[in-house]
Each structure stands twice: as C-alpha cells, then as structure tokens.
Design brief:
Length: about 150
C-alpha cells in the first residue's frame, strides 16, 4: 500500500469489500427468493426494506433476542409465545397465532389489537406498504409457508 495514492487505496479497498460482500456474505433470503415469481420477489424486497426499522428492536433472522422477540418463523407462531422472551402481560394473554391476517391487523394498530403491549410503533397506516411488510415477514424466516387465517385477536 505504500506509495499508492489515496484514490488507488480507496479503489483497492472498494474492490476487496465488494468481493467480500458477494463471496463471503451470502443473501440470507436467497432460498426464499428462489421460490418466488418476479413480482413476488419485488414485493418481498419492498417488504424487506420496510422491515429495516423493525430491526432496531427485533432480529429479523432469528439469531438474537433484542428488545422485541425475533421475527424469524413468525407465521404460525403463537403471539406472545416465543420461549425465553419476556413478553408484556397483555401479549402473553393474547389469544391468536401470527398469520398474514393477524399481522396485518396488528401492524395497522398494535394497541388496538393487543391493548397494553410494549411495542412502540404507532403502526403502519399505508395499506400497500403494510401488505408488503406482511408478505416479507411471513416468508422471510425459515417458515416459508404462510397461514392466511389465524385465530381471533386481530
């Protein structure tokens, strides 16, 4: 590196970084995307972008517990039922499983669906954005099968 100009060092660093990103860090959702049509992939990717703020409190990949429970394999999971997570009393008492329908209702207005829950989000008002987010959340984890129904609660 000695004797290289700043621009040459920067270009070399970018080349190394781009190689690492494409070779060493694979797309965690490649298997999910592979099973989607082109329009579904676009919708999935929009949902993934919309889920980025969720990652401040929730681990999207299911590797860690943060302020909120991880969101991997969410479809079909009992609301308030992830072992080892300290849910609010309200969420523990909720009586439904996560499905596209219950997620849509909860993400629209979390306090209406589960009054007294600790999630700080005011909800996602835009129905199309919320639909894309639900599409991503119900497919982004290791549980790719989506339950469209779900028991009450939302």
């Amino acid at each position: 590196m000695r004797g290289m100009t700043y621009g040459a060092r920067w270009a070399r660093a970018m080349l190394v970084a781009s190689f690492a990103l494409t070779q060493g860090c694979s797309d965690p959702y490649a298997d999910v995307r592979a099973g989607l049509s082109p329009s579904e992939r676009e919708r999935f990717d929009r949902g993934a972008r919309l889920a980025a703020p969720c990652a401040a409190c929730h681990d999207l990949a299911g590797q860690a517990v943060k302020i909120g429970p991880h969101l991997s394999s969410l479809a079909g999971r009992r609301a308030g039922g992830l072992p080892g997570f300290a849910y609010s009393d309200a969420m523990r008492r909720s009586d439904f499983d996560w499905s596209a329908r219950t997620l849509d209702a909860f993400l629209a207005d979390p306090q209406r669906v589960v009054p007294g829950n600790r999630m700080l989000s005011p909800g996602v008002a835009d129905t199309m954005a919320r639909a894309d987010l639900v599409f991503f959340l119900t497919r982004g984890g290791s549980s790719a099968a989506v339950s469209q129904g779900g028991a009450g609660g939302g």
